[in-house]
Structure formats: structure tokens, C-alpha cells
Specification:
The chain has 10 helices and 16 strands. The protein has 389 residues and is of the alpha/beta class. It has 2 domains: 94 residues, no CATH class; 282 residues, Metallo-dependent phosphatases (Purple Acid Phosphatase, chain A, domain 2, 4-Layer Sandwich). α5 links the parallel β2 and β3. α1 crosses α4, α3 crosses α4 and α5 crosses α6. The longest helix has 29 residues. The N and C termini lie far apart (71 Å).
Length: 389
Amino acid sequence: MSKRIFWFISIAISVAFVVWFYLGDGVAGLAKWEIKYRMYLIYIIVACVLQVLFALLSVFWAKKEPSFLKIFANVMATLLCVVFIGGIAVVNILGSLTPEADGKLNLLHSGETLPTKKNSALISHIAIASDPHWNVDTANEERRNEIMDRIASSGYDAFFCLGDVAEIGAIPDAYVKPVNDFAKHLGNMPLRVIRGNHDALVNTRKKFGYYFGPEGKYEPYFRISGNGIHCLFLNLLWGTEDWTAAQEDWLVSELEAIPQNETVVVFSHCFYFGSGSRNEESGVNWYDIPDMIEKVTPIFKKYNVDLVVSGHNHSMEFLKDENVSYAIIGAMGGKPDDGNLTSYISPKSLWNAYGEHGWIDLQVYEDKLSVIFMRYNGEPIYHVEIPTK
């Protein structure tokens, strides 16, 4: 292989790594929303540009005799190429390591019938929470465990966790303790868990699917229905960075297939409307997300979705946008958002609470939804009923 071919291959490897890494789940959102990680991405791009320049310099250096600059260019181009190849290997390895957990979960599969009540006005009783953030010191493990214990003892038909299960999904044993704790505290309760932005760090589809997917396989979006209630789960980690044409087509086709007189609840990690504050460090507003509101919420309105439940914000909030209700419940143990730092209250907000840990008690009836925000100790905080007919 000639030197010229070698260097062109090295350039292709470096550029391919940057493109592959940026297009990975959650990376574009990470670069947008978190200044620290945005700088890391810039460093990677700069390193790629330098590698390309050094490689081209080595190829087209006119002088035949060795020189310091040519030797330096050869060394740096080789070193950076090795770093990029190593980066591909490390990211792939970390994202695929799946040490065994002792706990066994009763996972609901897509297409499976949602557990419902029999011979009762209450059709289905579901517990919902988000953002437990296992494996980080700032999370409150004691309250997280109490939330699960109370859910387990309250007769729910199912439990849904809406993401940010782990602080960093790529850590080799990121999901061992969550699986064991879910099994220990929830027992055989049917449950489903979706990814949040922290779970997606980095290249963790295979890993997350191994622990929480049907038959060990990851599903980005799916539907679970039963007895006139339809639960649709979306893959929205940071915002519309993950809103693909394929996901939009899937959502529209699912909603069109559901009779208008039946109940529809949509779940995602990222919120749509929500109160919050401006992140001065990254320069972005952490509230009412314009792209989410513009691209996704019109679909909810058009097809009369009854309720949309999300996490992401570490708070509790209930909002209303015309015919669609929204709830935020990122309160399963992660460090709560500081209400004193909240500089913006969404015009859609009807109620919010900060500094709390807890879950949502969702009761489905033939003609209404009962939404109760519960404190970790089992105390109801806020209750609202949503007509569905």
C-alpha cells in the first residue's frame, strides 16, 4: 500500500468517526444543551481537521529529504488516526457491555395487552415516574426506594419509568443496580422503561435493549394497548434532535388507527411545554421547547390525544394546551430542580411543584382520566380529572 493511499484511508477513518459519533443517539442534543459536552465535540472536530491537514501535508510535501515539519506531520497524523480508531472501539465496547443482573423484570412488550381491571369502573391503574438517576451521589436513593415500595403496595396494574434511569448509560454496570432494585421493590409488577438523554450516553441502544427491551432488543418507539386505552411511547431524549420522519410517520399511523372515542396517552422522556429557566452557561432556554411545540404538539391536537406525560425536568407540573393535557414527573429520585432559580412559568402551566420526589397515579375510567401527583411518602399533592369523551 502506498503512503498516499494509507493517508487517504486515515483521513476517511477520522472523518467517519466524527460523523458517526455526532449522529449517535443523543449526541446532537447533548452538543446543543450542554456547553461542556459541546466543547468536547468541538475538540473532536478540531482534532479531525488537524489530522486531515497533517495527513495531506505528509502526502503532498514537495521536498524529498526529511524535515522536522514533515516528520511532525507524519507523527501527529498517525497519532490522531490511532486516537479516532481507539475512540470508535471504546465507545462501541462501553455501549455493548452487559454484565448480568440478578433481578428479573416483568417487562411489558410492544403489542402486548395492557393490564386492566375486570368488572370495575376503573379500567386501568398505572404508576408513572421519571429521572431516578441511579449511580450518582446527588440522587436520593432512600426516596427512590420508598416510591417503588409504595407503588408496589398500591395495587397498580403497571409501572412506567420515562428515562434517565442511569446517570451515564455507557458505564459498564450502569443498569445492574437499577434492574436489581426494580425487581426487589416492585416484584412481579408489569413495567416498561424508556431511555432518557443520560441513558443514551453514549451508543447505548444495544445495552438498554438488553436490560429493558422485549426479548433483549431495543425499541425506540412502540405502543401498548388494552380495553380502550392506548399508550404510545416516543423516542425524544433532548428534543427534536431525535424526531425523525420515520418516527413521525409511525406516530401518525398509530393515531389514525385508534378510534376517536378511545383514550390515548403519549409518553416520552423530553417534555414539550414546561416551566424552567435559561441556562446561561449553554445559552439555551430550558423551558417551552419551540421545536417540540412546533413539530410534535400539532399532531397531538389533531388526533385528540388526551394526556402527554414526560420527565426531563426534575419537577412536577401539569399543563394544558387547548384539548391536550400535559404532565411532567421527573421526580423519581434525581436531584430536584430549584424552584428559586425558575425564571419562566409556561403560559400553559396550571400547577407546578419543585423540591419534590414522587410519582403520578393515573386512573383510567371509561369517560375520564384521574391524574394524581403523589409525594414519595404516599401523600397526594395535586389532583385533576381529564374528560376523555
